[in-house]
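Consortium newsletter contribution from the modelling node. Members have asked for a concrete example of what our holo predictions look like. Here is one, prepared for the glycyl-adenosine-5'-phosphate complex that several groups have been discussing at recent meetings.
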Amino acid sequence: MTQEELFKKLIAHSKEYGFIFPSSEIYDGLSAVYDYGQMGVELKNNIKNYWWSAMVKLHENIVGIDAAIFMHPRTWEASGHVGAFNDPLIDNRDSKKRYRADVLIEEFLAKQDEKIEKEVTKAANRFGETFDRAMFLETNPRVKEVVAKRDEIHSRMVKALTDNDLEELKQIILDAEIVDPVSGTRNWTDVRQFNLMFETKIGSVAEGANTIYLRPETAQGIFVNFLNVQKTGRMKIPFGIAQIGKAFRNEIVARQFIFRMREFEQMEMQFFVRPGEEMKWFGYWKNFRMNWHKALGFGEQHYRFHDHDKLAHYANAATDVEYQFPFGFKEVEGIHSRTDFDLGNHEKFSGRKLRYFDPESGESYVPYVVETSIGVDRMFLQVFSAAYTEEKLTKEDGSADERTVMKFPPALAPVKAAILPLVKKDGLPEVARRIMDTLKLDYVCQYDEKDSIGKRYRRQDAIGTPFCITVDHQSAEDNSVTIRHRDTMTQERVPIADLPRIIGEAVSFRPLFQQIVNE
Ligand code: GAP
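And here is the predicted structure:
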C-alpha cells in the first residue's frame, strides 16, 4: 500500500467511526474546516489533558489561563501580525491553482533529498560493509551535482525569504524548473503577499463599526495578561502561562486533511525568563517537549528537530518538532525563543509598563520569553496516523482474517473498556450492567450486546478500546470475567472486583509522566 493510499484510508476510517466529519457536510462542506465526532472529541480531550497536565501540573511555576478569542485590534499591530503575518503566494495560470511559493520550493528540495538518498541506498547495497557514505557523497559525480543544486536553491530561498524578495522567489521557482503538480506547466504569475488574518466587525454598524480580527495564535492573550497573572499569582521569574484555545488563519493552501486548517486549536505556553537566560531555557523546553512526544511510544525514529532557516519576526532561535506522517516529516510543534519582542511592543503600543521587578537582582526589566506551541489537531493527526494498523490474522480453523485496529496509548484511547455479555439472556446482561455502572464512574465505557462477540471485538478494535470485558456463564457463578487485550488479542480470566484496578493502572497518565521527568 502506498503512503497516499494509507492516508486516504485513515481519512475514511476517521469518518466511518465518528472521529472527524467535514464541517457542514450536508451543504458539501467548507474547505479546511472539520468537526470532531463522538470518538474524536474524546481523543482530542485526552490529548489536551495530556498536554495540560504535563505543562501545568508537572511544573509548579506554570499556571493556565483562558483568554477571549477577540482582542483589541491594536494587539495585532503590536504583535506584528497586521504588518507581517503574510504568506508569499503564486498562481499557476493553466490550472488556476494557488500555492505558497516557499512550500513549492521546499517540496522541490525534499525531492532532491529523496534522489540523493536513493543513490546512497543503491550504492550501499552494491558495496556492502565497505560502503563509506561521506566519501560517496563527495565523490560520485551524479550525486555531487544534485547536492550542489539543492544547496544553491536552499540558500537562495533562505535569503529571499529573509529579505522578503518576492521577485527572487519567483526566479528560484523558474530556475529550479518547478512545474505545477496539477497542470504540469511552468506558467506562473508573480509572487504576492497575502495576510492570513480573518477580519470581522464588532459593534453595530450604525454606531461606527470597528474592525477586529479572529486571533491567529493564542499567545497574545497570554502576553497581554502577563502582569495580571504575575501579580495576582505572585509568580516569580522564571515562570510560565499556558493556554489551550481556538486560532484562525485564512490559509491559502489548505491541504492534507486536518494538518492545515482555517479554524484550529493551539496549546501554547509562554515561559518568562531573565534576559540572557533564554538559550538555557530554550534547551530545556526542546528536551522536555521531545520527551513528551516520545513517551507516547510511537517510536523514536519518527521524530526529529528541524531548526528554522528563516526566523519569524519575533524570534532569535526556533525549532520545530517534526513527526513522520504518511506524507513525510512535518511540523507538529514549534519552540521559539521570542526575546522581549512581544512584551516590549505591547509596552510601546499600550503605553503601559509590562515589567518585572526582580527581587534577586533589584532590577526591573521586560522579561524574555521561550514559547512552546503545538496544534491540537496536528497532534490528533499524529496520534491517529501512528495508531492506525491493519493486521492479517489466521482464524482458529486456519482461514485468513484481518482487522483494523487503532493502537492508541491507553491513556489517550477514547473508550477505555467495552462490557460485552456473551449472550442476551441467562442473567448475563444484568451482571454486565452492574460492571458498567461501576466502571463508568471513572472511565468512558461502552455496553454492547448486539451481534456476535467477534464482530463486537472488531468494532472496539476500530475505535481503539484497550479492553473488552466479556461476561459469560461462569461470571454469574464465580464473579469473574475475561478481559481481552486489544493489541495482543490475548484473554485472561480475572475477578470482577479487580477490574477498576487493572483498567486504572493501564489507562493512567502516570507512567508517561514518570518517563518524561526521568529522561
Ligand atoms: N505562537 C506561535 C505560533 O503560532 P506557529 O508555528 O505558527 O507558531 C504553532 O504555530 C503550531 O500551531 C504549529 O506547529 C501547528 O501545530 C499549529 N498550526 C499552525 N497553523 C495551523 C493550521 N493552519 N492548521 C492546524 N494547525 C496549525
